[in-house]
Each structure stands twice: as structure tokens, then as C-alpha cells.
Amino acid sequence: xxxxxxxxxxxxxxxxxxxxxxxxxxxxxxxxxxxxxxxxxxxxxxxxxxxxxxxxxxxxxxxxxxxxxxxxxxxxxxxxxxxxxxxxxxxxxxxxxxxxxxxxxxxxxxxxxxxxxxxxxxxxxxxxxxxxxxxxxxxxxxxxxxxxxxxxxxxxxxxxxxxxxxxxxxxxxxxxxxxxxxxxxxxxxxxxxxxxxxxxxxxxxxxxxxxxxxxxxxxxxxxxxxxxxxxxxxxxxxxxxxxxxxxxxxxxxxxxxxxxxxxxxxxxxxxxxxxxxxxxxxxxxxxxxxxxxxxxxxxxxxxxxxxxxxxx
Length: 312
Description:
Layout: H1 3-12, H2 17-23, H3 26-42, H4 49-73, H5 75-80, H6 96-117, H7 120-144, H8 148-157, H9 159-168, H10 173-196, H11 198-204, H12 209-212, H13 214-236, H14 244-265, H15 269-274, H16 278-304
Helix pairs in contact: 3-4, 3-9, 3-16, 4-6, 4-7, 4-9, 6-7, 7-8, 7-9, 8-10, 9-10, 10-13, 10-16, 13-14, 14-16
Subcellular location: Cell membrane
Enzyme class: transferase
Family: Belongs to the UbiA prenyltransferase family. Protoheme IX farnesyltransferase subfamily.
């Protein structure tokens, strides 16, 4: 879809507020908000509720800015892929120019306001996150290497570090491990999706691992990365933000995740196609719960700690 055809469609009916909200990728933004809030709350330094609210709001806007810039640049890919073809730009509800303006405007405002509301380290991390997602991942990695998800996963892993920096003004082992948890979780999560959405990536010319190396290789990668993820997740349990509750949750989740990855590894394509990738879809659904429950357990430990019930 060309810019001209998009502009023509938009002229037939003005974009609605909801179309601009959709540009911010609300579902992705919700994960950004949640993990950033956990990083902030789990930090050992208390933050005034109003400052905390403002900080999370500006982090959310920064995440939304990344989404808008991603949709602006990837409009050609989104128009081809079934999963993304209904987004605001491919359908002509928002012009590429408006999406770019929204993304740039929110980027500058969110970083500036976070620096003023909290501190400039947190603002710097947010600025780097936006740059990494919009430029390094979207404009370079996504279209040029099957390692796009591996390296690009850093963009989604920064929010808990930003939340921690808002509270403490620094970086610690705990914030790095929260980063590593999301970073290592991203490849098996997205490769599981690619196993049953591979035709979309092939059609769009995106060099996802399933396209460049095939599904068999991707299954091996899912299993290996799941094994590498487990010690990171369990290691958090022995830090100041962990505790018995977190460790119990992490142990159960990682056993289930490894079992799911093992089931994917053992599958052949004929079986997977016959049951419409039932096992792969189940693993993908589990991966969503996996990250949410890990950060939920960190949050629970932080909430219980003042009553002597959380932590070691």
C-alpha cells in the first residue's frame, strides 16, 4: 500500500481517537507499564505516589511512542501480514506522516517529562529504549537478520530497569536480572509464535528464524533458549527482590516451560500441521503467563516485605 493510497483513504473519513491509541500498541504498552511498575515498587527506595504515577505514565507514553514509530516504518510489512493488516496505517485510517509525528512528539515529551519528574538516568534509559526499538530493531534487525528477536528483545527488557532507576537513581544486580529475565524470555516466546505464523513472515519477507533456517532449527532454538532462561529466572529468587514465594512460582513455571519446549522439540511438521500447531500455540499462551507471573511474584514479595512476610 502506497502513501498516496493511504492518504486518499484517510481523506474519505477522518481518523478517530481510537486509531491513534491503536498506534501506541496498547497491549504491548500494558506489559511495559506492568514490568516498569514492578521494578519501581520492588526497589529498596520508597517513591512518592505522585512521582511514581507520573513516572509510570511517562514510561507508558515512551513505550507508546516506540509502537507508533514501529508502525510508521513497518506499514509495508504490516499491510502484507494477516496478523497486522488491520492496523491503522495499512487500513488507511491514519496517515504515515501523522504516525511519525505522534511517535516523535511522544518520544521527546516522555523522555523530557520523566527526567523532570524522576531523574535523568531513568530518562536516558527510556530514550535509549525508544531508539533501540525504533531504529536498531525496527529499521535494521527486523529486516536483515534472523537474530532480530534475540538482539531486539533488549527493547522490551528495559522497562523494569527504568522503574528501578526512577526509585534508586541507579542500576543494580536486581534490575539487570529483571532485564535479563525479559531478554531471555523473548526469543522462545516469539519463535513459538513464528512456528504457527510462518507463512505471514514468509509473505512479508521478514527473515524470522523459521523462514531462514526452517521450523526444525527453530524448535531446537526454542528448547536451548528455554534452558538458558531457567537459571536467570531462578537466580532472581536469591536476590533482595526474591524470596520463598517467588522461588516456588519460578520453579513451577520453569519446569512447565521446559516441558513445553521439550514437547515442541520432539514434534515433526506433519504432526504439527495435522493438529494445527496445537502444542506450539499452547506453549505461546504459557509464555504470556510465564512473564506475567514471574513479575507478579516479584511484586508480591515487595508488597509482603514490610509485614515481614516477603523476602528471605
